[in-house]
Amino acid sequence: MAKSQSAPTLEDVAKAAGVSTATVSRCLNDPNRVIEATRKRVMAAVDQLGYTPNFAARAMAAKRSLTIGAVIPTMNNAIFARALQAFQDQLAQAGYMLLVGSSAYDPVAEREQIRNLVARGVDGILLVGFEREPETYDYLKRHGVPTVAAWTYSEDGPVPSVGFDNHLAMQSLTEAVLSYGHQRIGFIAGKTEGNDRAKGRVDGVIAALAAAGIPRDQLILREADYDISAGAIHFREMMDAPHPPTVILCGNDVIAAGAMRQASRMGLSVPGDVSITGFDDMELAQIITPALTTVYVPHDEMGQRAARTLLQQIEGAEDVASVKLATKIVFRASLAKPTSVP
Amino acid sequence: MAKSQSAPTLEDVAKAAGVSTATVSRCLNDPNRVIEATRKRVMAAVDQLGYTPNFAARAMAAKRSLTIGAVIPTMNNAIFARALQAFQDQLAQAGYMLLVGSSAYDPVAEREQIRNLVARGVDGILLVGFEREPETYDYLKRHGVPTVAAWTYSEDGPVPSVGFDNHLAMQSLTEAVLSYGHQRIGFIAGKTEGNDRAKGRVDGVIAALAAAGIPRDQLILREADYDISAGAIHFREMMDAPHPPTVILCGNDVIAAGAMRQASRMGLSVPGDVSITGFDDMELAQIITPALTTVYVPHDEMGQRAARTLLQQIEGAEDVASVKLATKIVFRASLAKPTSVP
DNA sequence: TTGTACGCGTTATCAC
DNA sequence: GTGATAACGCGTACAA
To answer: Does the entry feature the keyword Transcription, yes or no (chains A, B) (predicted)?
Structure first.
């Protein structure tokens, strides 16, 4: 029996093919630098022994790991999962694999994960949003690890970004809502602490109201976790208050779904008694009844472009441009004119 | 300026602390084997230099990478994403990171990913389902890589499993459906090729029908991709046929959501004109209208248990037991008695 | 075109 | 308790 202990090494292949390890290495990494005859012999040995290179050794010698890291808040949110899948597909094509960490929206955990990824020698890192300690960016720069921030966009961020303007997107949606005639607005936002995307969306709403001359205290603002029940709870509180809003904007589609469910539990009709809007346009938005007016975000494209932006940096490009993705409002049944109010 | 070229190494720390690299290494990996005084000195040097170990080097020397690989069909499906998140959380606690690959339901791609993971020296691998070439299992065994299969369960599979009995779960649901009085059954299953979970579910339905003495040709069976539109299309075809079923079972909740949407587009009431059931009990199931009768699967627990099962193997446990998770039927409004038929 | 030999940063096995 | 030092598997100047 052959020993089934350890995988064959470069040296085993070299011996089998009657060449040096250097030649084998070249065959694998830069085939044209070796003459056809020997190359064939080497290749034969390679797949006869079932040789596969040891990545750790390769990483150490070549100082590249063919691995990309990503730190996202959570994969439980379909939008992160979806973009991450697109990101990963694109990387796989280029021979990279994805090392994932999740922060659970905790800045400290994120920082840890980033250091861990760097220690593991990843060739690049995908982050969500810009907001984090400057030290982290220093750290990344010092270690020469290419980085890209997604779900956000700025031409002059600390690292290139691939995303959209959260402020503008939400401002547009709010303007549209106002044009329907709504005056009392509720907004169940995502938690804004350490979350520039959520912050941008809140600012967008406020800006739209200001532009329309609606007093700031007409806005009922709450921050919620990104889940169904949080949406439901805040919806109930808002609607139970003395002067309930005629429309409730939500920080994302999941919160909106929670609001919608609560509405039906309270016997409120949407959009008859109250309009509801979301953000992201996940599949969910089309499935619930009534269908959700929301902001479409090209998640797949974001993942793909983020991957390409990162690969460009890895390949040595100097000034990689940030990518600004367009969002658009998708009007569906959940938004309508407010009914006359007392 | 300090040189910002490369990260500090063990040797730098050793020099700074006035000890040998061996001592530094011990301080980090097995602190009690070094006296307090020196340990303090070393630790001070460590975080003064901002030292973080190089994983590639560590992997090579220690023959463990503190990395776990996973190959799943796709993260776009919330159920995989969800369990993967739980899996990852559990691993992170033990100091491991997750290297993910996705197969897009393609056996060849999966095989590639597995080899890639092994070449990268992962300490363990998570796979979905049992069905794949025996060679793959040989390969994994030969390389001594602990493996666990999830979303499926068997006491004597090629590797330990953490999951549930797909056959039994679907059989139970079908029995429940039959007990409502349904006779003409439609089943929009997932693609069964290379997918033992989908196959198990189909067999479960067939077994239940057989046990109830319902002729096999009363079952209208279709295979669909796991997405909304596929569910919609097959639903329409089934309902447009001469003798439409009174209930349509679906291979998962997403397909069911598609069916439901199509029903409303066709002006069919659920469950008035036709009942619909799903599988997985994702959040979706409670949000759509009517709420979906489905099979609850403990995805989070599955991810967690899979992680622990894998870690046990890595820690050298000999006969790690497979974990059988319980599913249960969740009755909601989408299932009711069939209305009298002509 | 091909081979030699060193270095990459750790861990682990020895002595001391 | 601590310090040399030999692996670990590969890439790559440099030499031939």
So the answer is: yes
